[in-house]
Amino acid sequence: MRRLGSVQRKMPCVFVTEVKEEPSTKREHQVPRCAAPWSGRAGAAGRYRAALQPFKVLATETISHKALDADIYSAIPTEKVDGTCCYITNYKGQPYLWARLDRKPNKLAEKRFKNFLHSKQNSKEFFWNVEEDFKPVPECWIPAKEIEQLNGNPMPDENGHIPGWVPVEKNNKQYCWHSSVVNYEFEVALVLKHHPDDPGLLEISAVPLSDLLEQTLELIGTNINGNPYGLGSKKHPLHLLIPHGAFQIRNLPTLKHNDLLSWFEGCREGKIEGIVWHCNDGCLIKVSRCWKYRVNKTMSVPS
């Protein structure tokens, strides 16, 4: 199987999205209760911020131009895992785990940006002064690979953020759960993947970090995103890494709004966080499931 894409920018939704002028019902540890089963916004931080938003971002029934241009019909559909994004690349001369850290605008710039969006609704027309408009980040911070650059400066995406990464140091309390899945002395990471002799089973393996170089992965576990998979306990926490694209979806219905909705709601395989399509050109397209409340999710393992 060809190596699948990595997450180095916000993934666009497979459907065209629209803004609805009514308060978002998102709350921490919840996802939207909305007419559509998915939206173009995701992530724990996004869920929390959305509780303060006076609008909803919903998916329509129209497939987006980005998805069509990337030949979505020939893409490989995989399970979207509910965790926090990580990246493995070199630091201090050896493979390191990096945590996601988006550089965000300061209060004044964020206010200008929101006012502009409210009047124009097209973020690409907004002028950013990258040197003055954004909060400082650690010196070791690096921008994500696929973001746009202007005069050598990384530029914010349509949400006004500059996606990036910071290395996970061994004794950094802020990233203690990230640190729990790597051992830099032995240069290995704790990874959940298919059993090599039985694809219907999953196994936890110590994988050399060098084998994971330049890949992005999802960190899941007891203290991540409310632990939707029920891993570990407060007394015995358990955290694991899952390479993006690790779990392919074998029997996905046609790429139609109602068919996908029925699949999400009507079968065991559909009880997942969402779908990520890995396209031939490296583009990643997603659709996130909308849950009325958080439930324990399962990994979709083919029988």
From TrEMBL:
Keywords: ATP-binding, Ligase, Nucleotide-binding, RNA repair. It comes from the Eukaryota. InterPro entries: RLIG1. Its cofactor is Mn(2+); Mg(2+). Pfam families: RLIG1. It catalyses: ATP + (ribonucleotide)n-3'-hydroxyl + 5'-phospho-(ribonucleotide)m = (ribonucleotide)n+m + AMP + diphosphate. Its EC number is 6.5.1.3. Functions as an RNA ligase, in vitro. The ligation reaction entails three nucleotidyl transfer steps. In the first step, the RNA ligase reacts with ATP in the absence of nucleic acid to form a covalent ligase-AMP intermediate and release pyrophosphate. In step 2, the ligase-AMP binds to the nucleic acid and transfers the adenylate to the 5'-PO4 terminus to form an adenylylated intermediate. In step 3, the RNA ligase directs the attack of the 3'-OH on the 5'-phosphoanhydride linkage, resulting in a repaired 3'-5' phosphodiester and release of AMP. PANTHER family: CHROMOSOME 28 C12ORF29 HOMOLOG, RNA LIGASE 1. This is RNA ligase 1. It comes from Acinonyx jubatus (Cheetah).
